[in-house]
Amino acid sequence: MSTQTKKSSFSGGLGFVLAAAGSAVGLGNLWRFPTLASKYGGGLFLIVYLILVLTFGFSLLITDIAIGRKTGKSSIEAYKMVSPKWSFLGKLTFAVPCIIITYYVVIGGWILKYMVASVTEFAATSSDDYFVNFITSKVSPIVFMLVFLAITSFVVYCGVEKGIEKFSKYIMPALLIMVIGIAIFVICSKGESGTGFDGFLKYITPNINDLKTESGKADVVKIMNLLLDAMSQLFFSLSVAMGIMITYGSYVKPDVDLSKSVKQIEIFDTAVAFLAGAIVIPAVYAFSSLGEIAKSGPGVIFVVLPDVFAQMGIAGKIIGPVFFLMVAFAALTSSVSIMEAIVGAGVETFKLDRKKTALAVALISAVAAVIVCLGYNVLSFGISLPTGATGQNLLDVLDYISNNLLMPIGSLLTCVLIGWVVKPMWIIDEIESSGHKFGRKKLYVVMIKYIAPLMMILLILQSLGAFKFLSK
Ligand code: PHE
Questions:
Q1: Residues in the ligand 1 pocket, defined by CB under 6 Å
Q2: Contacts for 99 with CB less than 8 Å, ≥ 6 apart
Q3: pLDDT per residue as tens digits for the range 296-342
Q4: Which residues, in sequence order, are bridge partners of residue 218?
Q5: Tell me, what DSSP letter sits at residue 243?
Q6: Can you tell me the distance from the alpha carbon of 293 to that of 281, in angstroms, rounded to the nearest whole number?
Q7: pTM of the model
Q8: Are 64 and 253 in contact (CB under 8 A)?
């Protein structure tokens, strides 16, 4: 029986923007973005990424949010309302947060562990095998994951306005202050191998030679990889194609200017990603060597940075914990949004009580996440994926299925549905319904009909390993 009285909502435009930015700003910004920027020589990657945010990212984000507000529903019900024949797309989209939650909270637990350890055993965290020893241990990753999941569940349990909005209103400004503060500190610092400022210049200066082969010709393979990597980064970073922004959009009041809100979310998300790069790259440049980022790949915040903090001496003892606190904040607001996408849809589709649904989702996620933790010891299998990655465990496989397959497939189908079946006017009407102007309207139509679907097809092909020959 339904105990729902009225639909939950954000109190206004700002509450929505901060909650959506809370979802968007996460590990993708603080962890993945700096690694990619460093891989493609900084400046050039920044330019490509920025162009993609303003065109491709913008179109996907505004589509999700407008579908949510227009239908007033979460993923499952929303797609049913857009077109009953396309209701399968709602289920496919709903599957994404269900998969992601199981491993996002595991990584959230790792961050909490580092936050605590950077205070209690600062020196130890900088040793090379600390990270591997930790994630492969049997009990500790589960305990930290459960703490992270408990905080996430508590916020979702408290509801949209009293939980998610309130939480984001405090956390997001705090996060922004920390990321700016640490970036300034790092850029002004001086290490064994150089100054932070030189590292910063290296980060922002485009170097066209980075995209040339040794013989001076354009390196097509590298350019193609840069584009594909920037696109998939954008996807993950803006939290699109997983029902989250549809759910959050359904909580937005009719008078809010969506076009402006999307602009603000994009600016927030991109600014934090840029600043994260302005921390990681100059810090590693000054206190270690940039080659370390390439060597450790995604391990950069758990392996390279603790070492950098140790090199900083006393200052590192403060910067280290503050850095991990900031990452924990970012990860928490993201995991809250993942869980809300599940709970919101559950409440709506099965007419369930919100609080009970939140508890049930928390419980099921806990069991699944324990299994993901065990994927690093008793359940470790180390398989290869079509992308060419080897030695992959449960967490990587789940990440591959959700991010590399389901998200681009869902997004491609959404572009077809909006661009060709119901037509872009369906979205444009919603954006203009509040009486505000839709600034990038023409661009939107071209993107959603032609360019975004094409990009999605490329991404899907890449995930299936079709371009593996390029990296040979
Ligand atoms: N957008 C978040 C980030 O940049 C991650 C995220 C992924 C959030 C999936 C929600 C769902 O890290």
A1: 23-24, 26-29, 100, 236-237, 239, 242, 244, 334, 337-338
A2: 398, 401, 402, 406
A3: 766 788 988 998 899 888 989 999 999 999 999 999 999 999 999 99
A4: 212
A5: S
A6: 8
A7: 0.93
A8: no
